[in-house]
Amino acid sequence: MLKLSILQIIERIEKEETFHAVVEDYSFSIKIDDYVPYACAAVHDGHHFSKDLWDNCLHTEHDRWYEEDPCTGQMISGLPITLIAHDSRFEYDLNRHPDTAIYDTAWGKKLWKKPLTEKQKDRALTKHDNFYKVVLTLSVKLEELFGSCVFYDMHSYNWKRWDRKVPVFNLGTSNVDQEKYSVAIKQWQEILDDMPLPFEEKVTCTINDVFQGNGFFLKYVTSNTVNTLVLATEISKIYCDELTGQIFPEVVHSVQDLFRYYIKAHAHRFYDRHDV
Question: Which domain of life is it from (predicted)?
């Protein structure tokens, strides 16, 4: 894996080069093994939290981990194009608009003992901006090459906090063209609804149930492309104990192995239908 600047990453995408790289500030990594009409992102996978924020944060490390999406980067790692965030959403949230990407409170609890400095805020928002410069370059390049594209926007959520039965997978589609992409959405739901995971209960997938797909990543890619579908895909944290932080590697590896096959299959069916 290379360590590259944002400009170097953008230049390599524009030249259609294949590469594995981490950005020089280590805020995210990108992998392009092949230029294909689909890509995967895990914008909440990151747990890194800048040291100058530690003593000022009122949330514990587990508090932060609990609201992050651990292992989602690993789940998509077998696919040819991936974007994986390494910084915690508690420093800046890539799935929020820059105006709201830096939290004052998080899940009803004050986050900082004292306000962040302008330098700390500027550093965070620069990282946010740089990430989306790469997202834009990649999205435009894939549409240029293929005419249409599908992005799998991977997240996880804490199912034990709900007081009702919730699905293992949830698709958020409220901000995509549900008529244009109805077949692709339905096919992805059907694939996830019967995924053979090492989990005692039946795996289910619903649409706009626990989340509706209101994230900034989805909205940004959708608004800056013409024929790109973003599938905001949430997996409940059946792959770990969300209360203790213990990871269940057999479930994580199973999702990873199945996604390697199912995402590719779904994406090719999407491309066959929406090739322009």
Answer: Bacteria
Q: Do residues 125 and 216 make contact, with C-beta atoms less than 8 angstroms apart?
A: no
Domain boundaries along the sequence of the chain: 2-274
According to DSSP, the residues that pair with 29 across neighbouring strands are 22, 84
Summarised one tens digit per residue, pLDDT across range 220-237 is 999 999 999 999 999 999
pLDDT at 275 over 90: no
Query: Both tokens of residue 203?
Result: 């795996």
Q: Are 148 and 37 in contact (CB under 8 A)?
A: yes
**Residue type at 5 in one-letter notation:** S
Percent helix, strand, coil in the chain, to 5, is 40, 20, 40
CB 57 within 8 A of CB 49: yes
CATH 3.40.30.10 for domain 2-274:
no
pLDDT in tens, 38-62: 999 999 999 999 999 999 999 999 9
Q: Quote the tokens at residue 207.
A: 């649409």
